[in-house]
Amino acid sequence: MVQKAKILLVDDRPENLLALEAILSALDQTLVRASSGEEALKALLTDDFAVILLDVQMPGMDGFETAAHIKRRERTRDIPIIFLTAINHGPHHTFRGYAAGAVDYISKPFDPWVLRAKVSVFVELYMKNCQLREQASLLRLQLEGNGKDAGGEAKESAGLLAELSARLAAVEEQAEALTKQLNDESTDAAAVATAAHLERKLTGLRRALDALEPGTGSTPSVPSQN
Q1: 100: burial class by Cβ within 10 Å (0-12, 13-18, 19+)?
Q2: How many CB atoms lie within 10 A of CB 120?
Q3: Of 68, 82, 201, 219, which sits 20 to 30 A from 147 (CA to CA)?
Q4: Diameter of the chain by CA atoms?
């Protein structure tokens, strides 16, 4: 069973949260509510999220301040943030949003179809990254097994290596198709950059797997997941 991605919705108005849930329910992912910046930061302490939809105008800690805290934390700094605002103060206000770490800045009222499409891109990228981490975890187990018993489990190791390679090939194919789709649709530069980063990590993992092939004589290093 494929685990659903979590999407964090941050807005101090219950009616806005309800509207976001109605728009994003079609994605069939886990939607988590937060009615303040403080509540959002608390949720981010324990859960991993694919993307954050963050209202700018909130009492107390506003969206800009909340985003600054998110980007300062190592655990959460790479989570995409989409700012939502009902007030447009011009280019300076928009620039402040991007400077705070947002990947997009959408003014209300927004097109539900556009918002859903943007969120779905980041959900898909998140799912691909999760698959990549699973492949890297299996690779680490393979490397540890080779180190403990270099000769006694050659057949079993070869089988696991073949399975890893097949799983990685499936992820590579999906990532390539997603990157092509993003480039063809001329979507957000941040989404394209995230997809390119994912493909670079996949390339590193493929090289590590290739180095495990019999006769290479080298000990590969597992690519970082950061």
Answers
A1: buried
A2: 16
A3: 201
A4: 68
What gap in Å lies between CA 93 and CA 99, rounded to an integer?
Answer: 10
In 3D, which of 110, 43, 60 has the Cα closest to residue 83? 110
For residues 78 and 51, what is the distance between their CA atoms, to the nearest angstrom? 9
What is the rounded CA–CA span in Å between residue 18 and residue 23? 9
Q: What is the spatial distance between Cα 41 and Cα 43, in angstroms, rounded to a whole number?
A: 5
How many whole angstroms separate alpha carbon 95 and alpha carbon 188? 16
Count of CB atoms situated within 10 Å of the CB of 169? 13
List the one residue out of 134, 137, 120 whose CA is nearest residue 5. 120
- Block means of pLDDT (10 residues each) for the chain, length 226 residues? 86 94 95 96 94 92 91 90 76 64 79 91 86 73 60 57 71 73 64 70 71 53 47
Sheet containing 6-10, strands listed edge to edge, beginning at the edge strand earlier in sequence: 30-34, 6-10, 51-55, 81-85, 104-107
Given this model, what pLDDT does residue 156 score? Answer: 57
pLDDT at residue 225 in the model: 47
Q: How far apart are CA 198 and CA 193, in angstroms?
A: 9
CB-based contacts of 129, cutoff 8 Å, min separation 6: 198, 201, 225
What token pair was written down for 112?
Answer: 């539900």
- CB–CB of 146/213 below 8 Å? no
Check residue 189 and give its pLDDT.
64
Placement of tokens 């057949």 in the chain: 155
Are the C-beta atoms of 75 and 46 separated by less than 8 Å? no
